[in-house]
Amino acid sequence: MNLPVRVALALTALPLLSLPTAPVGSVAQSPGLSGFADCMALRQWYVAAALPRVGPWGWNVPIVAYDTAVRGAAAAEAVGNSGTGTNVQETGVDEPDVAKTDGSLLVRTLGRRLVVVDVSGARPRELSRTRLPGNGTTDPELLLVGSTVLALATEGGEVGEVGDRTHVTRVDVTDPAHPVVLSHQRVDGSLVEAREYGDGTTRVVVATGLPELDFVRPSRTRTPREALRHNRAVVRATPVETWLPGLRQGDGRGRHPLLDCAAVLHPGASAGFGTLSVLTFAASDPRGLTATGILAEGDLAYSSAQRLYVGTLDGQWWDDVVLRGGGAGEVDDPPTTQVHAFALDGTGTRYVASGRVPGTVRDRWSFSEHDGVLRVATALGRGWLPRENAVLTLAERDGRLEVAGRLDGLGPREQIRSVRWLGDLAVVVTFRQVDPLYTLDLADPTAPRRLGALKIPGFSSYLHPLGDGLLLGLGEHADRRGRSLGGQAAVFDLSDLTRVRRAGSVRLGLSDRFAAAWETRAFTYLPDQRLVLAGVESWGRGGTRLVALHVGRAGTLRRVGSWEAGRWSAGDLRALPLGDGRVAMVRRGDHRVRLLELG
Length: 599
Description:
With 599 residues, the protein is mainly β. The chain is 7% helix and 47% strand.
């Protein structure tokens, strides 16, 4: 379960330290989004949104049970890892990870240290360890762009997301034995997503929540009523600079505003509280970043090579659940997901459109952009078990994301377990007792249609195209009553999309699970060797291992190797291809790097 981050964004591409001050006014800038006449109006909005969230002990931060958050035809090309070794959602869009490689050098993190390892020889050779600045409570994750490493980490605040900061550190590894820290920046808020687009352009989505204010608490000399009165007065007196996210250079305490008041836009309806910002910069110089965003709740971001989408739950649903204390299944109206689209123009990020999708979107894999059309898989209904599921297509028209086509009736009373988009084809897996695997034709975005459905016990939590009309599913085997019987890998033959069949499968032990179910980066596919490398966690004996599976031409599947990896979570296990038939096996928190010869 992912707990929602209470956030907002501001929407315009602006230089950080030279922001225009011309007022936007109150005229809607695009459907559903409006600007503020001045900083006073923006401050009043923040105060009005914050007052219901403050109590005698400070901020009320409720826990809400809510889960937020490839191209080609049916015979889609096999998808391997990115050029830096990570299993990614979209070709050409790299994602941060705990380890990266260019085939000769491997960079990884051990706590707050950046470790550089030579993996060009028969044995790995550590070249250097560099202490990264800051006090991030999360292990940094890395992007590798040429000889530049970007380290991204979140420093936790005192209460939930209150006071969180995202650290962005740039390190030059031109001399891998002597890396040089070039810059260090801290942005108010938690890291949501980060992507690198092949040309060195990097976009980082940061969720800024409730600011740290000078609240008091009830005591022997202060009643709860008096504490509440004081805390509300603090909120009313807080200046706009405190509400807006800020940025600090290095470890200094100097704070600069990330956004000007004129840059901030908000939906017309209630959209919760906080600030979600999209930062855009070149890996060669993060100090030249621009910022863009929108005021809305949410922590769901997806990016193709052309568009970045931010999904947020409609604010009225949040008000019912968070402010009135209702459960996710107890509100009167079912939730709606707002979607905001940004065009990726080189080193710029430009807001282009907004729209609404009924229901809730499970995660970023439920989004896909293809030929300018956004496709979304969504769960309809209240609570954890939806009434049914649907796939919608949305097109950009005059600043709006308008529904162009819709297909309902997928998996009634079942949960979406996984989605994969293969050009004009979508594969959707739902589950309650059996696994309906649906194939959907999206060639005409205005008229999506169901082609076939394969119903078998169990379900696939992660889907991966193998080429030659084959699709791999990693998930769980189950009996006819829906009880799990352990992990399972299966290959599906998509040569006839109306009659999908399972071509091969491998079952694990009763307590074994594939880590790709919750961490898709713990998976690697080597197309040339037709090898699947997947992290496996054994809940019964508490161990983890890397398992190798070979995919036959006809879709048969057999186990060909296994390497023990200690007693840590299998979600921390990585297998990075080195391009010469070898793989570097790395685990978060383990100083060892193992080189595997796979032929």
